[in-house]
Amino acid sequence: MQYNDQIKNRVKRMEGQLRGILKMMEDNKDCKAVITQLSAARSAIDRTVGVIVSSNLVECVLEANEKGEQADELIKDAVNLLVKST
Description:
Blueprint: H1 5-26, H2 31-66, H3 72-84
């Protein structure tokens, strides 16, 4: 799978967010603020997983259709990846 700039930029934003959280911890910021930011980072990761899985699924289904193959197993694999990531 090719990871486009949009997906890479999502990961870069998450990296910056995690660095910010670490800085908050080093500065002994309030627990609630740290947890709020950690929850936001987790949400961003979950959304990125969804984007990657769905993009990959689309590519794989199109490829299977071109080859005249069934995509049922591909869809099951994608669902399993999403379930494992939660």
